[in-house]
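[SOLVED] Need 3D model of a two-part complex

Original post:
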Amino acid sequence: MVVAVVLMFLKSIVVCSLLLAAFAYLTYLERKVLARFQFRPGPNRVGPMGLLQPLADGLKMALKEEIIPRQADRLLYLLAPAISLGCALLAFAVIPFGQPLHVFGQTVPMQIFSPNVGVLYVLAITSVGVYGVTFGGWASQSKYAVLGGLRATAQMISYELAMGLAIVGVLIMAGSANLNQIITAQHALWFFVPQIVGFCVYFISGVAETNRAPFDLVEAESELVAGYFTEYTGMKWAMYMMAEYVNMVTFSSLAATMFLGGWSGLGFLPWVPGIVWYLFKLGGFIFLFMWIRATLPRLRYDYLMSFGWKVLLPVALVNTLGTAVIVSHVL
Amino acid sequence: MPTPIEDVRALITGMSTTMRFFFRKSETVEYPEVKRAIPIGARGRHQLRRHEDGLERCIGCELCAAACPAVAIRVVAAENDPENPVSPGERYAQTYEIDLLRCIFCGYCEDACPTNAIVLSQNLEMSDYSREALYVDKRDLLVPMPEAARAAGEATGA
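Solution:
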């Protein structure tokens, strides 16, 4: 019992550190990948091939002046980025990133904990993460921040509905909300194939949830100054950025787990450890996020909302209905 | 209104376009390791030229200062010492200063000069760290003594 708790603790520390380090290099990767899509080299001055750029950026963030506006609601202002980042990191706790390791006679699952309501847990935590955005916009007490914060909150809540319904299709097919069982239920065929509609809805909702282009109206520089993080500087702004990138990683991981089989390789190349498959799929999704950002123009806010409610939600509903009918009567 | 199929096709076209660019070599010129060719008529940093025998071309007529629209040139003329003439003629420029921060690099001084003394070279790299460093005087503007004249000067012991 004690061993299990200690292991969980150690795994949490390792995963959190890896995620935060990954954030730093994700910013580098994003800049390089976007640059290559835009026909330019990207950062290549700081260190060989610009690899030390995230260190320079991190140092800059840490040393920047911490400005707290006089009219800001102090407690909420300081709490908001912490809520965003905390929930982003917490959501990662249930994601299985490899086959269980067998060391020292113990079987160590490559997952921090595995509740039977795994999927529900992630949805709940990401919903609480929306409060980080709401409080940030509200507590800044400035016009741009309030407007941006409310818009972002409305956007995130709307797309959560479509996302949840897309996931229900997977739950019906897998018969469980436990992420490990979802992976084992895909041993014959990844859910990507029968649930292709659900996959598209889930991915588009994921892009909207993380406020990435083309749904990034609330934080793009040309809109509303910077939306809900207008008044944030230095480390607190860096925490919002971290929350956004960690959310991106979490959504990619969930998409890989629920639709692409997580760490399973479907029996091809059995000597490749599960975690390599998982990282490969994760990398593919993150690349897809960046590719979409480089390609598509931004959606205006009313189009964004009407797309979420009038297109994605009905499509997800039909998908769920169809899946339920087929699974219960045909299979 | 475009149909959903047309929308999906538009999406695929867009994504494939960006993907094609992903694999192309970037066109960026990596300055300062690589420098682009500067056109011949480019107006860069000023230079005060000399004759072949080493005498300065500038006769201190101050036409360049008068022509300058930005009032960037300051010339103080002085009488040439007959024993050691600095320029062929009666006057030479005792003080010749150009404020590179006021200068608009129009080239009017070059057009106005009767002896073709002040010219704008092709050197466009003029950055520095202080305002004072960019207020240049004759010492920085004058071109070096040509080889033949320097050798002749040493031979005669001047």
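Edit: The radius of gyration of chain A is 20 Å.
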